[in-house]
Design brief:
The protein is an all-alpha fold and 204 residues long. The protein has two domains: 46 residues, Homeodomain-like (Arc Repressor Mutant, subunit A), CATH 1.10.10; 139 residues, Tetracycline Repressor, domain 2 (Orthogonal Bundle). It has nine helices and no strands. The N and C termini lie far apart (59 Å). The N terminus is likely disordered.
Length: 204
């Protein structure tokens, strides 16, 4: 790993000096984008917080937009791994997997610093098509829906896609209202609402 650049505009501590510039830029940007929003965070703040120079950022990423996309791709990979572990722990029963799926997203809302889904947040900030970050967000959401539909189809119910979409709406809604009401707001009804929706489809 490279040493910290001598011309870095802001200090980041001795431990950070062991990381190369690209790693510091990425980790700093990912944290700031999630905490504050993408448009609210500029390149100058990223390099200052990372303790590197602006040319270092552009040697690693063609633009801020490409840095945004890289951060979202990292979120998607991390989230996929976490969800894979949750589903594996639930066993082969599709109903148990589906309930574990909902519980996984419900648990995220109680974590410190939770600010909703990075993909949904990005889609709101960048409504225009073609933005690298929005493209990652759209791809991630499409893959997530396909994964959920795959689970609901294994239940052997009528209209598995409708159930999957209903669960998506509940999760997205819970994450959205969290911005206003916090962890003790309407989002606490996510698991109970999802259970009732699942049971209604199973009874059909």
């Amino acid at each position: 790993m490279g040493k910290r650049e001598a011309s870095a505009p802001c200090g980041t501590g001795c431990g950070e000096g062991r990381k190369n510039a690209a790693t510091r830029i990425f980790e700093t940007a990912r944290q700031l984008f999630y905490q504050r929003g993408i448009r609210a965070v500029g390149v100058d703040e990223i390099v200052c917080q990372a303790g590197v120079t602006k040319p270092s950022l552009y040697r690693s990423y063609d633009s801020k937009d490409h840095l945004v996309a890289a951060c979202l791709e990292s979120y998607a990979e991390e989230a996929g791994d976490q969800l894979g572990d949750v589903l594996a722990a639930a066993g082969d029963n599709p109903l148990a997997q589906l309930r574990a799926y909902v519980a996984h997203f419900a648990a995220k809302m109680s974590q410190p610093g939770f600010r909703g889904c990075p993909m949904s947040n990005t889609a709101v900030e960048f409504p225009e098509s073609g933005h690298p970050g929005r493209e990652v967000a759209e791809s991630c959401k499409i893959e997530a829906r396909e994964r959920l539909v795959g689970m609901t189809r294994r239940l052997g119910i009528d209209e598995p896609e409708t159930l999957a979409d209903g669960i998506i709406l509940l999760i997205e809604g819970a994450y959205s209202v969290h911005h206003i009401f916090g962890s003790q707001g309407p989002g606490t009804a996510l698991i109970q609402s999802a259970d009732r929706l699942i049971d209604a489809h199973l009874r059909r």
